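Training component of the fellowship. As part of building independent skills, the fellow (R.M.) carried out the full modelling exercise for a liganded target. The chosen ligand was beta-D-glucopyranose. The inputs are recorded below so that the supervisory panel can assess the work.
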Amino acid sequence: MKQLFLNVLLGVTLMVSGQQKSQIYLDVTKPIEDRVENALSLMTTEEKVALCHAQSKFSSKGVARLGIPDVWSSDGSHGVSDEKLWSEWNSAQWTNDSCTAFPALTALAATFNPEIAFLFGKSIGEEARHREKAILLAPGVNIYRSPLDGRNFEYMGEDPYLASRMVVPYIHGVQSNGVAACVKHFALNNQEIWRGIINVNVSDRALHEIYLPAFKAAVQEGNVWSIMGAYNQYKGEFCCHNDLLLNKILKQDWKFDGVVVSDWGGTHSTDQAVNNGLDLEMGTYTNGLTTEGHFPFSSYYLADPFLKGLKDGKYDMAKLDDKARRILRLIFRTTMSANRPFGRFVSPEHSQAARKIAQEAIVLLKNEKNILPIAVGKYQKIAVIGENANRSMIVGGGSTSLKAAYEVSPLQGIQDKYGKDCVVYSMGYASGPSLYGREEPSKLNADSLLNAAVELAKTADVVFFVGGLNKNYFQDCEGGDRKSLSLPFGEDKLIESIQKVNKNVVVVLLSGNAVDMPWLSKIPAVVQAWYLGSEAGNAIVDIISGDVNPSGKLPFTFPKKLTDIGAHAFDKLCYPGDSVNVYYKEDILVGYRWLDTKKIEPLFPFGCGLSYTTFAYSKPSVDATELKSNGTVKISFTMTNTGKVDGHETAQLYVSKSKSIIARAAKELKAFKKTFLKAGESKIITIEVPVSSLAYFNEAKQAWEVESGIYSLLLGSSSRDIKGKVDVKINSLYISNN
Ligand code: BGC
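Fellow's submitted model of the complex:
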């Protein structure tokens, strides 16, 4: 035993081809790079190739002969998936793998709270660690370009700065457990329709200013250990082996030293996989989430064909060594790290974390006549209407579908809080079964459901309508985009009918996407409650009862109509494309950038969210009105909670430049700060903006550049509620690409 310990600590010797080689790679006290080089020197070409492709649906080989463990990965961004069969998507039906379901990432983004993002990452990382995973296939940071994208719920909204600030602590949290985060899908995977083939045409400026910043922050600030390529193409090359994205931008410019993992089935060619930056090929010859191809793992592009090419001299051994090095580095950072904690699974702390994240995520969109909060005992009869009040929102949606240890539904939460005797329920509408590639209409009679709900609403003091989208195909679900901005399943008609018989209607929407609200003017309160995971019902009730003051802010715009969004303001080539190409004609004007610049009124703007209290902002001041090019400007102001309850407020700092040599968005988010204030309390808040963050991407120079001149710093409570403004003068500055 003692000898074994010494071997591990000091390294042992191994006979290789008659020579003795030291096994430094086992010595956890040695620098990782020494361990990597040592392990590499002990491996055969076959063993190195075996590192580079899957051996099962969610694992790839280590080096069994050397005691280097296999690499196991798991979805997903808001909970650790159940174990799958060896080479199929189906569940392995284990009985010990039901996880804590955390809120979806749109919800996390809505907290505007990087500390909450760390808590999220740390908690889910602990679950992944307990389940012996080396890689958690999360988080997703593709920019919300169109409200129709079926995967928006998995991502962090429409603003690159917000997504960047939230992704970094998430990664730190996950990786503090010795589990690699795998930021995805790199890059430009902004629609599900034709995702496996579509070639994205986007300007360099929009690429660098809008679509890449969150990935860049993940690499350079988050030090993420792995990244997943996207299914789509960019400049005619699939993103999983794309020379420009992977070799040039990611590995050369950003100095990424981790592993590029293909999306499942995203690899298409051995030559390109070898040469264009892919390291680990997963899921080849499967079609999305269901269809199995009988394609042996040894036939993967980076398996036998790679080995043959190496032996024939077609491929450079240095390419193989680079891939193997990266994978070994990941193994030494994770499963063979001395600093790896033990993790924990479905612990009370994780439930608390899930509830806290959910509480901070919920956005109060409308609250006329202070209908909310509703204290226990205020009303005798509460009607809960809507299928979403009582169906699982954890199951479905594609690869993020979870087997959760428990899920508190909104209905259960409301019953637990207000008392079962006070609460009556009616389904109101019904979605049909969801099968891959199609959504079937429900077999239940829509009119009977509606009539029963309206009858119930007549008798109630207050109605909670709990609707929205769900995780069915063509809703918030991987593999397909929504067909329209409208609520599905006749919900609009139902809401209209309910409000005719009851004026106290609170609409609670569960969705990861913006929806149209034709009934909005007739409804006193609207709550955006996302997909909140295991603690959904508890967190919703915490907010509607007033136990917790809402503080979430929208991470994307709710438009009045679809064509008010840049991606939908042009022809079909702009969205969804012609099945071969899609052209991002709105360029940098994504989300609120489009609506603000074009002076279009949103239904609800980016960054908005009400509270049960009110906040006053003083006039902002800056520490210097003229700035050196490499300086940082400090904006200070006093925020006061002018209402009667304690609460959080997120102050947002947008920057605008009216006279410019380039086309600009009317304003762009450059900083935010969430602060807790007791009722009546005031705090001086200082927000820092580095001048370098005001740079735009100069396409001619292929470099970041700060234009000189006057910039307006706009302090607001949302992108449309600007409380104060201060101008600063800045000298020009060139910044290199990295
Ligand atoms: C998804 C990825 C996921 C992978 C493994 C793919 O279909 O795009 O996000 O991690 O499957 O389930």
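The panel noted the following from the submitted structure. Residues 1-11, 287-291 have pLDDT under 50 and may be disordered. The chain has 18 helices and 35 strands.
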